[in-house]
Design brief:
Length: 68
């Protein structure tokens, strides 16, 4: 099983990963602020992930890890 891990405290909530994901696995949080004061990306549908790594490759902050 594939696991998407968002390093919330590194994320600035730019949304590039959300747009890059073909399966809508990620979304920008509407309730959780990180230590920098941003609403980070969060995993909303782990089961839908196909491990394409588009989100991790797109993230400018290297805040996403994919475990296979």
């Amino acid at each position: 099983m594939v696991k998407v891990i968002v390093l919330a405290d590194q994320c600035k909530g730019c949304g590039l990963c959300v747009r890059a994901c073909p399966k809508s696995v990620l979304a920008i949080s509407k309730s959780h602020l990180n230590v920098k004061g941003y609403y980070p990306a969060e995993v909303v549908d782990q089961e839908a992930c196909v491990a394409c790594t588009a989100c991790a490759r797109t993230c400018p902050d290297v805040a996403i890890e994919i475990e296979k």
